[in-house]
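LAB NOTEBOOK - FOLDING QUEUE
OPERATOR: T.R.
BATCH SIZE: 2
PURPOSE: Compare the predicted structure-token outputs for two unrelated chains run back to back under identical settings.
PRIORITY: normal
REVIEWER: second-year student, initials M.K.

ITEM 1
FIELD SEQUENCE / FIELD STRUCTURE:
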Amino acid sequence: MRAEDNWNSLPALMLGLARSWPDRPMLRFWRGGGWRSLSWAEFALQVADVAAGLRARGVCPGDRVMLVAENRPEFLVADTAIMAIGAVSVPAYTTNTVADHAHLLRDSGARCAIVSTTRLAQAVAEAAGLGGLDLLISMEDGAGTVSWAELTAVQGDLAMLVAEVEHIPAGRLACLIYTSGTGGPPKGVMLPHRAMLANRQGIAGFIRRLGLPRDACYLSFLPLSHAYEHTVSYLLCSFGMEIVFSRGAERLAAELTDIRPQVVTAVPRLFEVLRARILALVEKQKPWQRRLFERALRLGLRRLDGPPLGALERLEDAVLERLVRRRIQARFGGRLAALVSGGARLDPELSGFFMAMGLPVLQGYGQTEAGPVISVNVPWENNRHAVGRPLPGVTLRIAEDGEVVIRGPLVMDGYWNNPEATAQALRTEGGEVWLHTGDVGEMVGPALRITDRKRDFIKTLGGDMVSPARIESLLMAEPAITQAVVAGEGRPGIAALLVPAEGTAEAALAEAVRRVNGKLSGVERIRHFATVAPFTVENGQLTPTMKIKRRVVLKDHAAKLDQLYG
């Protein structure tokens, strides 16, 4: 199936492919103690059954249906079925609190929810309150809900559904993806079918040039409720890749070697964890092995950034490729064609570590409001200091104040029931609607480089404007520091809240800060620092995609910051 095929909606795309590839494996998942597989034909039949079950229970076009589930086949089946009958999918994180679920239900006006477990059914029912939902469906049997078996008891008419979805207009609202809320309550981003299909069109040439084998697979472990994974899963399987649903981040290392995927998507926090694990293993090796690793890293960085290697260095590098890098690559399965980072800025030092080891780390850039992919690096033009060229079909410019603004079919329709926020993000200029991303960037040749978040700049007491992202990236590049947030708004200088690596002594932490200060200008240097407990999803200081909620962290540790500044 080629990008030139003119699909107007995601259900038309998915059901059309099922007709073309009935016996081809589509999804692989762990159930009952082993890996199971779902073909495209089986997927389509399940979509038809769920669509019929939802209609029979009164779900109508335009209704919002909240979907709360782990990465599993039923998620994509339900998501596709909801959109196929003209309803609007509202994916939600399984890690949401009852208050989070209540906000989404109130804001979206959803009268139906589909959940994966009894525990989640109880949480959503509590969030809804009495009379808050007309229909609560559980993929597992649960008291007071409609079970998945009951929902799919009546066989759907697949042929009729295929004929229907061919008439879904590209501009119809497909889903409400709620922003993860690094500051303020999450907003519902209105994504029409055209936005996600524009992303598909934009990456088509990239996927074809990768030249992936017929049995290529994609390891999916980021939550499908996030815009990044939600869109990418549809895109990659639509190019023939089998999606393998990971059993969780704690099993990821084993799955990489077991499944040997060609494509993996990740967020920067995962790269930080993987680098720490690799360095911990290297530290346990003999001195001569550590020296080989360090030399392989230095020469790998030279290949990336120059100056060019000499003849003897090229020979040495080839030997180190076999002795060192291939062992690292084997930990990722040995067949990776693309390890794509998104969701937040990936520090160049962190990406350089993996690229120097021969791993195809490709940083992309996007946001929920843009479908979500705006730009991405490619293996044959990979700049670790940038986020790649804008996708075909994306018009991008840098505003006078440095903000990145874009337009094109990938742009959202606005924020659900939030005209003020919509007017701030979508502005009409010269008869065209531009999305103001809130990110500050610059063009490096044909590629975009993101330098900071426009609203995250710190203005110190002396009036200096400081980029927290740059300082935090340098801090987290230190092996002694796993997480960092810097403060200083209206204060006399910069302070840092640091989560030290396990077993790190105070002296080692102070030395790491000293090294970072050596790379910073006078106004950027860290004057004070304090250690704090790890930022986690559970304590509300991380989003489900592992982005640090800076405002929450600063609020939670306000007393400690007051002590630092005296």
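ITEM 2
FIELD SEQUENCE / FIELD STRUCTURE:
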Amino acid sequence: MQLDARILSGRLIDWQAVPAPWRAALLRLGAAWLVLIVLFGGDWLAMLRQWWDISTYNHILLIPAIIGWLALQRRRELAQIAPQTWWPGLLLLGGAAFLWLLGALSGLDLARQAGAVAMLGACVPLLLGVRATWGLLFPLCYMALLIPVGEELVPLLQTVTAKITIALTHFSGIPARIDGVFIDTPAGLFQVAEACSGVKFLIAMIAFGVLTAHVCFVSAVRRAVLLAVCLVVPILANGARAWGTIFAAQYVGVEVAGGIDHIIYGWVFFAVVLAIVIAAAWPFFDRRPDAAMIDAEAINTNPLLTRLAAASIPPVAGLCAIALVVVTARGWAMAAQDLAAPMPDRIDLPAVAGWQRVDYTPRIWWEPRAEGADHRLLGRYAGPDGMVVDVFLALYAGQGEGREAGGFGQGALMPNSAWAWQSAATSVDGGRGERLMGGTDVERVAVTWYRTGDLTTASNARLKLAAMADHLLLRARPTMMLILSAEDRRGAPAQRAIDRFRKDSGPLDMWMDRMARLR
């Protein structure tokens, strides 16, 4: 058996065998990537920490190597395509830099990180040309999976898993009652916690499915079927796993079943599920192992690509354009990051007709998180018929890194506390309602609003868009987060107490502005 000398020498590519135009173009691309990674190093380090520290994103550590492998698969065909500096790629780079800028201005890490990744991808059409980009289209699209996204799906997946679990529990003959993400059985109370939502396996399966569909299939129908399987199977499998834990607990106890579940969940169950999906898909693979991933001749003779390729510029102009875009984006971000609206010396909880201020004495301590806020208020009102409502207000001079009213981990649900998310609650005056569970017997409803300028909303997305607009216009305006909350009490349900308090406190925008001394 003979081994390739390049493998014996530890090299996958003979650099001297690379055509001279490609060597020069790849050196320019490498230099541009290095500069971008250094200049936006904070975003890349933040992503790296998420890949390494958060189990949901551990699989992303493999994706850079996968992208490199996908590019190497195309190297022989790409060598037949002449690289060029293509000025329309500058539009893509400008769009990516603008996306990063919007994230930097609003404090939205996802947009910053997506922009940082997109800037690397946009350098490829700019510095290698439209034909080379077409040949590298899939690896470039696969770069999107470098962005750590998916944690936002946790509440939805918790709810879906709980519904699958309760259905299987009833089907297996076990009496059970569901309340949001809590399932009460004869063996004890079970919670479909964030870690049990199945989000990490779902995201990893999607990454696997997209790769396998591209590499192993040619048929679009077969690709779509595999992607659908990779989306549905992990959700169903996670529900079955949660049911298995409840079923086992009826016979061996909650602690033993929970310990077994952690071992199986981490090392066995989903490895078996993945193996089953691969085995089921294997007979339907329709791409020959020796088939080329791209057709260089078809790319070179494509009439549309030929017309587009006419928009070339000198390589030096392309590098200068990258520098101009990057300097503009970072300069704008620096000018906006120090914006701060004037703040009052203090803020107060105002009087509400029919209600009086009382000592704040919750059965389980509850205090929303509002990192970076310039003022915070937390107080309690007692009203008619034994109703009690807690009021939390946070006032920010501006929005940005470390001071995001709608940021991850901010708001009514305190991370690493006695409180757990149970389900969505009925909206009040357009607010975002959440039902929280404290311990095993304290239930609380919390309704959240944000206000900036003339906008009052419960939508984190709308708040982010308003913050982006303010920063783009270099306009400083205060931002508020208001949370009304109440514990369920006998004869005074939380939802009814909040509804009554809102009616008695008057127009929401005026009441918030009065608390923050903006009126």
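REVIEWER COMMENT (ITEM 2): Residues 1-10 have pLDDT under 50 and may be disordered.
FOLLOW-UP: none requested
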